[in-house]
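Changelog-linked ticket: zinc ion example.
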Amino acid sequence: MALPPAVELRRRNRAALLEQLHRHGPQTRAALTEALELNRSTIGALATDLAESGHLQETTGQSTGSAGRPSTLVACVPRSITVAAVEIRADRLRFALVGLGGEVLERSESALEAGADPIEAVAVITGGTASAAAVASVPGLVDEGAVAHSTELGWIDRDAAAELEAATGREWRVVDTATAAAVGEWSRGDAGEARKLLYLHGGRGLTAGLVIEGRAQRGGSIQLGHIVVEPGGRECVCGLRGCLDAEMEAFGLADGIEDATLAAGMGDAAARDRLRRSGEGLGRALGAVVTATGPDEILFGGWLRELYLSTAAPVRSAFAETTLPHLRSKLRLRTPVLGDEGALIGAAETGFAAVFEEMR
Ligand SMILES: [Zn+2]
């Protein structure tokens, strides 16, 4: 049965107010009134209501104005809504329990033995932790909770969401690492102004995630690593030839980017050549992705961060040769501010987005 309009409106306003505080931190009732475009009495009633339900609290902040009266700030109660986030990698698992407002309440990391099943390890690391949502990030091609392909984990067609649910007895969302990191940088990094944010993730295999006006692109990540950059080149595991992944693998940078940049810095000509050619391949693949998606900001994450920092010139020149000038003109290329934390934070934010959506 449909809810009466007034009840529905109230639900939507509650969700909007909590989301505003979650994203932008404690603020005054006046600031909330302006941000949400609601009147003062509506904000007042919502704040009272949400304080009674334990979701927010009002605290006295610093003195403001000439009268020196302390302003009252409305803030989230972190433990009132929590999200469990897990980042699955080939050799380790990271877990965070994140509270409303973005505070990390619990955190742990464990190494995965070779051959260990990450799904079982997730059940152990999350234990009996209760939360409003649970989200796992997985490196690879993810669609609707299923992992079609993960070079890093050696998975093909695994319904990770269903397996996680069976192992833990609760519902899970699964998102690819690149998209999770893009969400993390948009919501908790400094890319919140980007209209279309493209995050390139270098793990074992290269993927890219796209966030458009704050929302992750549905249908999984972009298979950056399987864009052909050398027609007729090296054979790739996917069956094509000359994929970026296959060409990059020949340079051994996924495991050896630090050694290569160090050697190049010491004047090793062979290392410099490997880095330059890798940068050119990346730039060409990027041209294809940018032509298809038209982002306004690109972040180089995982080991691509080091590659970009050491080869920005060849990346940019190969990119310029394969991309229309108007797509490049307002584009920013840079490295992510959250570093390796992006995917875990983004997995949590993916969970919060779902929680707010359900509240509406
Ligand atoms: Zn391929």
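Closing comment: Example verified and attached. The first strand starts at residue 27 and ends at 28. The pocket of zinc ion is lined by residues 226, 236, 238, 240, 243, 245-246 (CB under 6 Å).
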